[in-house]
Amino acid sequence: MKGGEVASGDAIHRGDPVIVDRYKVDARINHWLTAGSFVLLALSGLALFHPSLYFLTGLFGGGSWTRAIHPWLGTFLFIGYLGLFIRFWKYNLWTPTDGTWLAKLHVFLRGHEEDMPEVGRYNFAQKCVFWSMTAFILVMIGTGLVIWEQYFAAYTTVDQKRLAVLVHSMCAIVMICIVIVHVYGALWARGTLTAMLKGRVTGGWAWRHHRKWLRELATGKSDQTPRGTPAE
Amino acid sequence: MNMELSRRQFLAGSGAGLAGTTIAALGFGDVESAHAVSIRPFKLAQTKEARSTCPYCAVSCGMVIFSAQSKSAPGKMEIVHIEGDADHPVNRGTLCPKGSAALDYIRSETRVKYPMYRKPGANKFERVSWDFAMERIAKLMKDDRDQNFIEKNNDGTTVNRWTTMAFLSGSSCTNETGWLTWKVARGLGLLQLENQARI
Amino acid sequence: MTNSWTDIKNADVVWIMGGNAAEAHPCGFKWVTEAKAERGAKLMVVDPRFTRSAAVADHYSPIRPGTDIAFLSGVVNYLLSNDKIHKEYVRNYTNAAYIVKEGYAFNEGLFSGYNEANRSYDRSSWEYEIGPDGFAVRDLTLENPRSVYQLMKQHFSVYTPETVERITGSPKDKFLKVADWVASTATGDRAMTIMYALGWTQHSHGAQNIRTAAMIQLLCGNIGVPGGGINALRGHSNVQGITDIGTLTASLPGYLAMPTDSEPTLESHLGKRTFKPLQANQTSYWQNYRKFYVSFLKGMYGEKATKENEFGYNWLPKLDVAYDCLRMFETMYQGKTNGLICQGFNPLMSIAHTKKSIAGLSKLKFLVSIDPIETDTARFWENHGEYNDVDPAKIQTEVFMLPCASFAEEEGSLTNSSRCVSWKWAAAEPYHESWRDADFLADLFLRIRKLYEKDGGKGIEPLMAVDWSYKDPLHPHAEEVLKELNGKALVDLKDGEGKVTRAAGQQLASFAEMRDDGSTDGVQWIYTGVFGPNGNLAQRRDNSDPSGMNVYGSWGFAWPANRRILYNRASADPDGKPWSEAKKYVFWDGAKWTGADIPDYVPTLPPSRGAGPFIMNPEGVSRLFARGMMAEGPFPVHYEPFEAPVANPLFPKIKGNPVARVFKGDMEVFGTAKEFPIVATTYRLVEHFHYWTKGVHANAVIQPEFFVEISEELAREKGITRGGWVRVWSNRGAVKGKAVVTKRLKPLKIDGKTVHTVGMPLNYGFIGEAKKASPINTLTPPVGDANSQTPEFKAFLVDIEPISGPVA
Amino acid sequence: MFPPLPNPTTQPVPPKFGDKDLLRRSATSITPPEKRQTEVAKLIDVSKCIGCKACQTACLEWNDLREEVGVNTGVYENPHDLTPASWTLMRYAEYENPQTGNLEWLIRKDGCMHCEDPGCLKACPAPGAIVQYSNGIVDFQKENCIGCGYCVKGCPFNIPRISKVDNKAYKCSLCSDRVAVGQGPACQKACPTQAIVFGTKDEMKKWADKRIADLKSRGFANAGLYDPPGVKGTHVMYVLHHADKPQLYSGLPNNPAISPIVELWKGMTRYAGFAAIGAFAAISVLHRVVAGRSVVSADDERNAKMLADKNMMKEKTP
């Protein structure tokens, strides 16, 4: 692929350890706002999903408020995610490496990333999260509008609403699962959270998880052929 | 040290995660049981009832009219509900869409509230007092009667009629009003006296 | 109504025609659904539209508006030619056996004695042959060719099912089913009730519509029996009572007559009206006319009414001509009326030819409207765009709009359609600044009197002669007025042996107690008994039904004499035995008349005396042959409406009703079938009451806007879509409304020609909460029935076109 | 005639049912009373209905509802549909009967059917916003309603409406306040032809049999009672001349039941959902335990340093 793996603002700072800038501040704000709205959405959604969780409406000032706020949070999340999408979509495009990477997934899960093919800014798993979130958010906003009584009741039949509410709740579940994976991934790979909190990672982190990205960053040129010797 | 940082963050995060359940423990869960069912209190309790007759068609259904102390005009009774009189042999408590809505008639927005007067050529009504209206009407009637009352016709027969004045009498008025109308109209010598019987 | 609302439950066949009881009288209609549910009665509806009455009917037949006489005459012909009549009833209780005198004739659609110049008849030939004994000659075999029976057979023979279909458009099979069901009640053990309303009266031949129906009922023996009768479903809650009172141009209370110029003395008036019997032993109750008249005068003028001054007879205004509504507005239109008081009346909406009404009202010096809610009439001078396009500056009328107490804010008595007088109590004081009608009338009358006392003026004597001795003259109390209607003894009333039967000052128990010597008063003889010595019977609320025949004799008071079914003596055969157990009602028990009701008969007069059951008539029997009573003739004839899509198929030369009154200049406002090919009819909607409820929110909600009902066929033809706007115009004006395209209206084949009918509700105007609309009478023709002058609202000609929408 | 109930009393009377008689309560698990109250029912005899709309105005007046004045759209229905302020509505259908060739004007009073198995209540997420009394009345509790509109989706008859004003759901309450003092619903009291009668469900079924027999005698072979089993019966029932074709009556459902979609949504989805979430969380924890954390080694740092130094020195030297 042409565009390369390097996003604007990515940079290397020599030193020990080497520090690499991965996320600019606006990207981080964008991410955390989106993340926050997701959490609130999940809580308000679950509150209306099952009586045993209705108590969660307490967090939003009661049932009516929950009902009123939830769709607006959804709208907010949609916009937020749109920002992330515009920022990162090109680094999430399919590359041949993703195929070989996927083939050695078991190795990755065992934590032996040193034996994995070098990946760019994002590995295959992260790309999956990215694209599935994109897809589900589209479905959620769509079905969400259908069941947004206050403004859109008139535009659809009851049967369409019924289907929408079913799809909406099912997709919500799947999304929550994906986010669990996403969050776990971030916690599992030590140093990852810092990327989103402080915006930087150590060179070692980059070398281990996104070597191709690091190389490009260092050489300034996008080159498919790995230089030097594989890490031992 | 970055790692340390992140760990602390993580704990903090999980702490936040706990918050929900803690709140539950604090009794959010009791929200349900706090609410009791509410059946609207029966609104006719403590009202005064009067037996009346529907003002509309000539089935003349029996009505029960419920009234209570007015909130707007203290001391006055205000009609709060109307329904059919179940004791009435004809309607047996039923009412048609007009009768069922008779309350909206009594409190109609187009109800005349005060005597209103329209001057010749004017394009609006103005509010006047009853005394002004009645005095003016009596005057207009007397003047016209004095001009146009016929005591004897050409053959010299006493006819005592006043043909330039007309009275349309309402067929929803009571029999008593009807008779007073007849008496007043004929007493003045009116022949142009009609009601809705023909139309 | 001859019978009562609750009596409808006793019917085996219910025939609704010229009315729409389910929509105009829903709570009375309950007794139709009860008859169906409880005794398997059959309901048939004949109407130009498939109405909400038809929705629950067992049989429906369409009909072209204004052709009811042809349809009904077809039934008469069916009954006579198939001999499906109640022979004994017809022979003994109708004038079928009476011989009509020589000279009476009918040809080319006209009866003997027609005078084309003044559009009226010399009715002298429409009479019985009088025998040497001074009584009318009869032939109880009914075979004499000049007997009413034979003349009828001949007269109605032209109305064959085919002819009926040709004129009315009612398919032959549907017509025959109706005729057959009618015939099924000519047996004495089954009864049919006929329910009609303004669908029959609002025609240039309205009275004859009803007469023809009455004849059918007589032929079947359905008058005077439970579940039978001919029942007029009246409009307003007290239109019956107000009609009884007689606030009608030519009426006195209790159906007594106003004096006319040709009756200079009381005797000259009474002489004409105290009818001698036309058969031996007949009651001819109108012989008592003078007692009622004198008692009335005593009530009207009290002390001042004496034998010497003919009880004040000459104080009453004398009628030069009858000022019915149509003439009223004609007179107004001619500028001959200066003042008008509208008491709970909205004439701008209810009188034909609105353009003319507006012009008339504009010529008034002053208009007074007293009504609980605003009426279109009170604001006739106000510009409401296309709905009432007038220029206030050009209208010099002084207008007073006075607030009146609503029904719930006053007490008094009302008389329902089945003549039952019952009391209502006030639920609250009058709202806002409104007055009770009584207070308005008293105040007005006393103010005018005061002005005369002060300044003098014309016609003081008759004005001052009126008795106004109420406890509080400014606020007459309802109960004292009802007492006045009932009447009392002014001196001790004694019987033959000098025994006091009624002490001076006591209320009379019955009009039988009334005297013609001034010793009794009582302005409303038919109500006498309502407030007798035992108090106010209108307030009775005992709803027990001792006979089990749905007769509630202890609820209120039904005039006359608390009778619930009129002519009920006819429910028994000449020997006084019930025609059948099923219809046992009033009968002779050997000593007296008894049964479920107060006998409409002298209680102790044995059947052997042969007095007929129709005691008001000098014949003692009912009239199939109307003698001189009807303007159009003794038998009904099919005349087309003044605006008809075809020429009269029977008598092509005759336009409309040959004796209907048409004012000078009004002939021109009629449209022709060439310009206006579509028949139009107007009607009430169940959701609304006349022109009031457009000002009542909830009713405006459930039927908010004027519309025009048209058939799918006409819609296709004209390119009109459901809910789209249409313009309907007649030779007198145009209205606009939404189109309700429906299967419930169908084009009919009339005399080989396809005729469309459109229907329009009359309940909308430019004042109120409902959407504004032009008054429907913008379209209707200003011609009335020849007897009652009821306007022809139910059949006229229009054209229709789709439009884009009104220019607001 | 069905004996009319006496006029209402103006004396205060304690309601005949309440909290203790709850059969179901939305989003709440309650133990129903061991003794159930006699089931009540409103019977609507379509064959006696004259479509006069007295039920509509009576309902407006009794429940203090203020509906808007609309327009005519070429039909008799007004308003054009049920609304938060119109809990009942006359629906008119013109049907040309192919058997008889006669036109039939089928007029049906639409409104809440008070199902024995109430879809609205089952769909409702707000505890106590919808309750079902043991006498069969399904009532909305405004103060608990959150306006989510789930009841709309749950109802097989498409009855509840959400107010744009206060965002609460509204529908016929069967005049629970009147029934509680021994009166019938306002619409039933008004109905001029007793096309609406009210009593115990058994009484109503008996009464219906009588009406059905009458209709059959008048040639309506398929006359029958509409008490759909799909919702375990209703407490508002119809007598229909064509019980075999309910849809003729302005689309009365042939065989109504809570939509399978709603059942799936309110049933399986919940449990599957929680299971899935639980599973993912569990797997994560498990993976953490088994695979440990992915840690950056010193080598990695060194390699990164080498890489950085190499390239960046290059850049420096001219």
Overall average pLDDT of chain B: 85
Low-confidence stretches of chain B: 1-35
CATH architecture of the largest domain in chain D: 2-Layer Sandwich
- Approximate shape of chain B: elongated
Helix content of chain B: 25-40%
Q: Strand tally of chain B, please?
A: 8
Q: Helix coverage percent of residues of chain D?
A: 25-40%
Class from helix and strand fractions of chain B: alpha+beta
Largest interface: chains, residues each:
B-C, 120 and 166 residues
Order of helices and strands of chain B: HHEEEHEEHEEHE
Order the strands across the largest sheet of chain D as they lie in space. Answer: 9-2-11-10
What radius of gyration of chain D results from the CA coordinates? 29 Å
Report how far apart the termini of chain B are. 100 Å
Q: How many strands, which pairing sense, and closed or not: the largest β-sheet of chain B? A: 3 strands, antiparallel
CATH C-level of the largest domain in chain D: Alpha Beta
Care to describe what's here?
The complex is a heterotetramer of chains A (232), B (199), C (808) and D (318). By secondary structure, chain A is mainly alpha-helical. Helix content of chain A is 62%, strand content 4%. Chain A has helices at residues 25-49, 63-88, 96-103, 105-109, 124-146, 149-152, 158-188, 192-197, 203-209, 211-219, and strands at residues 11-13, 19-21, 200-202. Chain A has a three-stranded antiparallel beta sheet. The two termini of chain A are 28 Å apart. Residues 223-232 of chain A have low confidence and may be disordered. Helices cover 33% and strands 24% of the residues of chain B. Chain B has 199 residues and is of the alpha+beta class. The relative contact order of chain B is 0.07. Chain D is built from nine helices and eleven strands. The interface between B and C is large, with 120 and 166 residues.
Helix and strand layout, with pairings?
The complex is a heterotetramer of chains A (232), B (199), C (808) and D (318).
Chain A: E1 11-13, E2 19-21, H1 25-49, H2 63-88, H3 96-103, H4 105-109, H5 124-146, H6 149-152, H7 158-188, H8 192-197, E3 200-202, H9 203-209, H10 211-219
Antiparallel strand pairs in A: 1-2, 2-3
Helix pairs in contact in A: 1-2, 2-5, 5-7, 9-10
Chain C: E1 13-17, H1 21-24, H2 26-39, E2 42-46, E3 59-61, H3 68-81, H4 87-93, E4 106-107, E5 110-111, E6 114-115, E7 120-121, H5 148-156, H6 161-168, H7 172-183, E8 192-196, H8 198-201, H9 206-219, E9 230-232, H10 239-245, H11 266-271, H12 289-301, H13 325-333, E10 339-343, H14 347-350, H15 354-362, E11 366-371, E12 398-403, E13 412-415, E14 420-424, H16 437-455, H17 460-465, H18 478-486, E15 493-494, E16 500-502, E17 531-532, E18 535-536, E19 557-558, E20 586-588, E21 593-595, E22 678-683, H19 697-702, E23 707-711, H20 712-718, E24 725-730, E25 733-742, E26 748-750, E27 753-755, E28 757-761, E29 796-803
Parallel strand pairs in C: 1-2, 1-8, 2-3, 8-9, 10-11, 11-12, 22-28, 23-25
Antiparallel strand pairs in C: 4-5, 6-7, 13-14, 14-19, 15-16, 17-18, 20-21, 22-29, 24-25, 24-29, 26-27
Helix pairs in contact in C: 3-6, 3-7, 3-9, 13-15
Chain D: E1 22-25, E2 40-45, H1 54-62, E3 89-96, E4 103-110, H2 119-123, E5 130-133, E6 138-140, H3 150-154, E7 161-162, E8 169-170, H4 176-179, H5 186-190, E9 196-200, H6 201-217, E10 224-226, E11 236-240, H7 260-266, H8 268-291, H9 298-316
Parallel strand pairs in D: 2-11
Antiparallel strand pairs in D: 1-5, 2-9, 3-4, 5-6, 7-8, 10-11
